[in-house]
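ping. complex inputs:
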Amino acid sequence: MIKVGVVGGTGYTGVELLRLLARHPDVQLHAITSRGDAGMAVSEMFPSLRGRVDLRFVAPADAELDRCDVVFFATPNGIAMQQARELVDKGVRVIDLAADFRIRDVAEWQKWYGMTHAAPELVAEAVYGLPERNREQIRSARVLANPGCYPTAVQLGFLPLIEAGVADLSHLIADAKSGVSGAGRKAEVHTLFAESADSFKAYGVPGHRHLPEIRQGLVGMAGKAVGLTFVPHLTPMIRGIHATLYVRLTQDVDVQDLFESRYRAEPFVDVMPAGSHPETRSVRASNMCRIAVHRPQGGDVVVVLSVIDNLVKGAAGQAVQNMNIMFGLDEALGLDIVPVSP
Amino acid sequence: MIKVGVVGGTGYTGVELLRLLARHPDVQLHAITSRGDAGMAVSEMFPSLRGRVDLRFVAPADAELDRCDVVFFATPNGIAMQQARELVDKGVRVIDLAADFRIRDVAEWQKWYGMTHAAPELVAEAVYGLPERNREQIRSARVLANPGCYPTAVQLGFLPLIEAGVADLSHLIADAKSGVSGAGRKAEVHTLFAESADSFKAYGVPGHRHLPEIRQGLVGMAGKAVGLTFVPHLTPMIRGIHATLYVRLTQDVDVQDLFESRYRAEPFVDVMPAGSHPETRSVRASNMCRIAVHRPQGGDVVVVLSVIDNLVKGAAGQAVQNMNIMFGLDEALGLDIVPVSP
Amino acid sequence: MIKVGVVGGTGYTGVELLRLLARHPDVQLHAITSRGDAGMAVSEMFPSLRGRVDLRFVAPADAELDRCDVVFFATPNGIAMQQARELVDKGVRVIDLAADFRIRDVAEWQKWYGMTHAAPELVAEAVYGLPERNREQIRSARVLANPGCYPTAVQLGFLPLIEAGVADLSHLIADAKSGVSGAGRKAEVHTLFAESADSFKAYGVPGHRHLPEIRQGLVGMAGKAVGLTFVPHLTPMIRGIHATLYVRLTQDVDVQDLFESRYRAEPFVDVMPAGSHPETRSVRASNMCRIAVHRPQGGDVVVVLSVIDNLVKGAAGQAVQNMNIMFGLDEALGLDIVPVSP
Amino acid sequence: MIKVGVVGGTGYTGVELLRLLARHPDVQLHAITSRGDAGMAVSEMFPSLRGRVDLRFVAPADAELDRCDVVFFATPNGIAMQQARELVDKGVRVIDLAADFRIRDVAEWQKWYGMTHAAPELVAEAVYGLPERNREQIRSARVLANPGCYPTAVQLGFLPLIEAGVADLSHLIADAKSGVSGAGRKAEVHTLFAESADSFKAYGVPGHRHLPEIRQGLVGMAGKAVGLTFVPHLTPMIRGIHATLYVRLTQDVDVQDLFESRYRAEPFVDVMPAGSHPETRSVRASNMCRIAVHRPQGGDVVVVLSVIDNLVKGAAGQAVQNMNIMFGLDEALGLDIVPVSP
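pong. complex structure:
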């Protein structure tokens, strides 16, 4: 059994981690921390976990996290970077669901996240946990940077085209739409039901923190600079991301075959039949990413449709997938969830 | 392995059955029938099942259902009653998720359902599959009438009070609210998104088919006549039923203790702490029924709040629970789903 | 032209008031105050008002409210009671959309609202602004207590039965469902989209602040004590209240005729044909209350269905209706909005 | 008074037309036709119109449409083209909200709409009713082709850039998101609440009927061929379209100034301040189009965000705007609706 600690269990990625870990056959939940709600039963805050998670939140200081095999940080940005060093030094592996270790260029990170990085040396060794790209490095990672939700959907959609060298890299467009849970469980006016239901909007068009993360990933695939326009939108649903990607081909290629070949062995990427339009609900509550590829009217523009559940493949599920890889388990262990639809 | 057939797999109770059966460790899916879509891959109609259910719909005539151990009817009312006789005679057990075998008074059934019953003799032997009331009879049932969604939530909420003889039976009120999936997957104007989103309404106030079913159940608990007012409402959510019940006490009693005692051993009924207000999402995608009991201002009116997922405990999940009981399995096998929240 | 001030224009009742006042032909908007957002253009906070309201929020101290003919308080509870005295003494009429002047029993008010009342003498003279009950007193009111949202829907539904003396007053039940905007524009976790979408729950069952308000109104109609159970619920829609009322008749009566007679002359109460089920969307954005009356199976239980838009007839629209009455205008002036459906 | 007929009043554009016409000061509603529901009171089908529209649906043959000044066709494609000739010959002006007269190339129209055109000679004389482009021609139009919903939002967003000659025309991208009412009031499975709520998907990527309409409009602005990729999406809200447009600049230009200058005099196009992100709810129920323009990171890619209410500026409202122009009225008459938000 893997002894697991969760730091910051009161947000959506936290409760989703608990949903998944509660039924993972090889996991023993050791502690779930919360600064503000220590002492409260986890299932009092999240009644969906009644009878499934019997722990109480503990204060970070009382959590004895160094007795864990792995600690997940489901915290705001800037927390994991302060605590990871000590854990790693004691042999505890760290999986950060926030952004602290995602950007290799520390100066760039500091610009976008508006704080000084507390552990730049760990950034250097951290592994970016997109298994479809970095599975081998993940196995031995001590610090795992779990990808952002948009970056997961967008990178998996661009990946086959860029790796194959058939994309016009100067003008990549990612138009992405997210459910509201992506904004987290903080009390804010703009994510109130009466503000975000029955309405649709873009946000962060001048620049969103996931832009440098996606760009870094695409540059890594391409081996050279890319021109990327990324526009996120808020859509009135709880879970789900739908990324619509626009790529100009530099050469003629069978894009359906390209995607199917690239992802044939991937347990959590499903290339749908030609002509498909994946719905976000087709992956709801599961770790799947479903992708369809189109060339409208047979032209040179490829439209890629990529959907994930932002809380699963875009956060907690991918974190568990990474944990499975890190501990040599079947990569899909505990993740055999059939999507909930309708 | 239990060999299972599903008749009518293209509606919401059908696809939900498939979601549950696909991961049931002791079930082998033998055939899924559809009159209109025979030949189509199940996962083409329901992409959420891609990689999980590899069967194609077959025409009823080709399904060889008599080779099954059990056949679920996820069909409109009036189908199971035509086919059950033959299956039962061949030793195949039948679980009907529609209403054909729910009402013991055949004349009453015919009045509410507007057709002549094709197998009244099977009504007599059919067992009403509310495990919390009829677990023993369910074990040996050959024909199992799976309860309706409203009747499940409402009966479980009234049950402890009526069994204990502390309810004023002359004036029971059940004000129930259902998500739109309860109306099924038929194309109808009133359940279009643009008709039912962002709005709320009652329906069927003059008389709803679940009224006689609930009344029969309550009379069974009480051993005498009851006066019941039942008002269903449509609420703009996909899944979930919330029943709010109003009962006048005929004697002073600790209602919290009464409910906890009655349901202590039940795997799928969760009596919440005093003062709770269960949300439908706390049971989403799971087979749980959560109940809270109140006596506002300490008066003689008891308010019971009872929530289920209409497609699970209100349909497919309860059907699997009944199957487990009928075949001597652990009652919760294949139903260990952690509710999906948010 | 009536010179109008609005205190507290940044909540939902505030912005809804502005929507209505912006197109009221006899109104001149003089000032809109906001403690926290003084200086900001109203249309920057509420882009829906771009080109329609050109004012900026001003600090309360700078608003020169004593130059207004009428001041609306769209503030939290406890604000109007502190400022009304001074305005009234200067001849400015006050319409409070909060609860400060709704409950005539000051001790009762203090118990439910948890504060000491700052102007009990104004409570005594304040008029409760339900025009269908108190139209005459409203004409000359100096302080107008605009009814709560639930109390409006519930009282209008019970009114004809109680006034006619045909209701069993010992056991009145009001099961009410509200859209999320009823909770206001405060940043709180439980009204986030991801918390309240696709889910349904009751709240405040042990006691909700609208209970004493409703009870006071019903007692006023009945001339004697009433036994009332009131259960509010949160439903995943933006606007709308649906009240389902259960009343036992003490004598046989044609309830359809009773309701039609009582409301024939009311401009904002629409008694629907027998057998109807009003939807909340049928009054969306308008000041209408639509009501249907049923006697299921011809029994002695009457079920009343009453729907309003909580922000209009349940708040800002009724406030404008009251203003019209107070200033001798056509009661419907500025309120001729056709409901928005779908 | 303008005597108005509406052919096909039972769909969403029909009922929305009625909402607008019912309060238009210069309109007299003469007849509303329905083949299937003749004899039914309009307000029985649409209770939101109770007390506002007192007509009954009449059979087309009984409508005496030739006595009208103008007839709106709110019908499926292929109806107006069969009836327009006769009306026009009798001096009745025709406004078609469907697609019959939108595409000037009849062969192209027949390819996309799958039928033979019944009145190609009327296509030649029909005026495309986008007032911001064609106001002068609209004044004297006998047959008015009211633009599609997507084409309105998309064309208004591209227009200033293309007219100014600063757009790379070879690779224009329009990623558009629509509320579900855009699919109409037909009973279909894919627009059921339980199918389209809490989910998001693209559709029609290989080719959507609005593609040739948009392309024709852009070609008209550019005076030459354009390369356009158009991807529509279904988003779980009732009303609203959000178009996100991607254009590469061919020369440096102040895009904010360009848009503001172009639309300064337009009553129904609102260019928002630089940095804005318009929400669809900011135009809900109104005839406004709100637009924001961005150049992320100051690059050469312009992102245009354009929102409308698909049923108003995208259908019925624009039709009334066109009627006002055709009859020499104030263009905004009857359209002074303040958007409903929240």
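The longest strand of chain A covers residues 241-248.
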